Fold:
Amino acid sequence: MIINILTLFPEFFESPLKTSIIKKAILKDKLKVNLINFRDYSKNKNKRVDYPPYGGGNGMIISVEPIYDCLKANDLLNNSYKILLTADGETYNQKTAFELKNEPNITIICGHYEGFDKRVEKYIDKKISIGDYILTGGETSALVLLDSICRLLDGVIKKESYTDESFSNNLLEYDQYTIPKIFDDQEVPSVLLSGNHQKVDNFRLKNSLDKTKKLRYDLYKKHRFTKKEYDLTINTKENDK
Structure:
């Protein structure tokens, strides 16, 4: 996979690209990251990319021209799946991460200032927001996409490592425990020490269902229950009546 990041601050990514799973994906040749400073494509003599909005208003707006010229010069207009990071985009989630990991070439455009000229949207395929809050720039959001996508690529981590994770199936991951068995009067649930794999699996599944219902009922309502999951939650449902 190739991920192109259009940014005014390519240095922001220097450390993350040399760390953890992203580094592993790059070293395994599963991922190539191109950092492209779209300021380099400004026709302004001072390489300016932001200007006051027509009609007045606060802040500055990123012009469409350097974004278009950058995409065209790097052959990304027709050969890459282009994502604009913006507050009015679709809220990012694990489902979208799984969809994007199948794209061979992705371009992520990082915003700054008060946003983009509306006309930029003609040249992109998807608008994404990582949440209902404001960041200084799109680089942090781009790093979220980069990290969440690359770990799903075949051969980067074991498939088993992410199939049971939170949000993979509209459920939060079950609670986990390790040594010591007792700490500050808190004991590891005995079923996890039983050696009975069936009971452990049932315990974890029910814990995941109960935890999701309590903490993220919005996800719980969207989950499509299997017969086994339904049977495990009957007692919980009866107690809720």
User: Anything to note?
Assistant: The beta strands are 2-7, 32-37, 50-51, 61-62, 81-91, 105-109, 126-129, 182-183, 186-187.
